[in-house]
Write a structure and sequence with these properties.
This protein is of the alpha+beta class. Helix content is about 25%, strand content about 20%. It folds into two domains: about 170 residues, FAS1 domain, CATH 2.30.180.10; about 180 residues, PH-domain like.
Length: about 400
């Protein structure tokens, strides 16, 4: 697959972006462990800038760094996860605004005044989303020496008073205002040995008869409290380096993982990656990491035994879920169809709480394959903690 820079080079329409990263000395940063989410303007986006803008940026390296870092967010965020956010803090230090009010129509979120034209391009160390415009930070709140940005004048003044060496490139991932991620690798440990879980045959598809439950109406912490009690203690969390490090190179691509992330609001969420590195389902937000761990344990417990309920249009009749919150029933995968004929599914625990949500699919058959992938991968997936503060 390659890292973010390698994927951009191979893709083709990012020649200006790659050249700018080289001029700013940020190539090695985006080839690092990360993970990063990059909102990447293509060559056409750079061409829309006023004449002379690119030349001026290349002459002012701190400003160029500020612009480029303003396109990068710590962590791996899919467009589904971005669609649930209002803002995101960049590694430059300032926030980008996310307009996702049409996300319910499966329209890609807007980032500031830019549109996402291509989404969820996976790399070994993160995710790329293509933009049709170049984002510009607030240069009045940006340090002219290192390019780091701030949200208030007081924060900028405090930074300026501390002083720093102009020639030294900033280390954005160590900034306290940026979401903590695992940047420094711990001492290498032996390769992870996965013990396959015994797979059960999927149970017959169940029909259902009421309307889809609106996922966004539930309070995250309430959902966590109502989750089924976990009888077995959760497995120890691993850092990304412990799973994907040099000594575990042979296991890469062969181990499904739950990755725990922390968003800009300080909430915890996770997603499940299949053995091919693709994200299958994402979680809601949780107030604590422990609650997120309980959510993972609930998916491990319920995925294999959950039935499948098809709530898509059948003979012109829209079916609704019969699963009700607070009433103990069998866990269920519910397949739904959006207004633009895209299919999604979510996994409900026995108490009716939604514990995992899928991406969008163009066909119901693809959604069913996604469910099969969750059933196969969730029980044996390792837990990777991406929130470990770098030291």
């Amino acid at each position: 697959m390659g890292d973010i820079v390698e994927v951009a080079v191979e893709a083709g329409p990012f020649k200006t972006l790659v050249s700018a990263l080289e001029a700013a000395g940020l190539v090695e940063t985006l080839k690092g462990t990360g993970p990063f989410t990059v909102f990447a303007p293509d060559d056409e986006a750079f061409a829309k800038l006023p004449q002379g803008t690119i030349e001026d940026l290349l002459k002012d390296v701190p400003k160029l760094k500020a612009v480029l870092m303003y396109h990068v967010v710590a962590g791996t965020l899919t467009v589904d996860e971005i669609g649930q956010m209002n803002t995101a803090k960049t590694i430059q230090g300032q926030e980008i605004k996310i307009d996702a009010h049409k996300w319910h129509l499966h329209m890609n979120p807007k980032i500031n005044d830019a549109n996402i034209t291509s989404k969820d391009i996976a790399a070994d160390n993160g995710m790329i989303h293509v933009l049709n415009r170049v984002l510009m930070p607030n240069m009045e709140l940006t340090c002219p020496v290192c390019g780091m940005g701030f949200m208030t004048n007081d924060a900028l003044n405090a930074h300026t008073k501390m002083g720093h060496v102009a020639e030294k490139a900033p280390e954005p991932m160590l900034t306290a205002e940026v979401m903590p991620v695992a940047e420094k690798a711990p001492e290498p440990e032996p390769a992870i040995e996965v013990i396959p879980a015994v797979e059960k045959m999927p149970e017959p598809t169940a029909s259902a008869e009421v309307m889809p439950v609106v996922e966004t109406t539930k309070e995250p912490m309430q959902a966590t409290e109502e989750m089924p009690a976990v009888e077995k203690a959760p497995e120890p969390m691993l850092t990304a380096q412990e799973v994907w490090g040099p000594l575990a190179a042979t296991a890469k691509g062969a181990v499904a993982v739950f990755e725990i992330l922390c968003d800009c609001a300080g909430k915890f969420r996770f997603h499940l990656k299949a053995t091919n590195g693709q994200i299958i389902v994402v979680s809601q937000s949780y107030g604590t990491k422990e609650s997120a761990m309980k959510g993972i344990a609930s998916i491990k417990k319920n995925a294999q035994v959950a039935k499948i309920a098809d709530l898509t249009m059948a003979s012109g009749i829209k079916l609704e879920s019969t699963h009700r919150a607070g009433i103990v029933q069998d866990p269920v995968f519910e397949i739904q169809c959006g207004t633009v004929h895209k299919f999604r599914f979510h996994l409900k625990a026995g108490n009716g709480q939604i514990i995992a949500v899928s991406q969008s699919y163009f066909t119901r058959q693809s959604a069913e394959k996604g469910i099969a992938s969750v059933k196969k991968n969730a029980p044996m997936a390792k837990v990777v903690d991406q929130t470990v503060t770098a030291t």
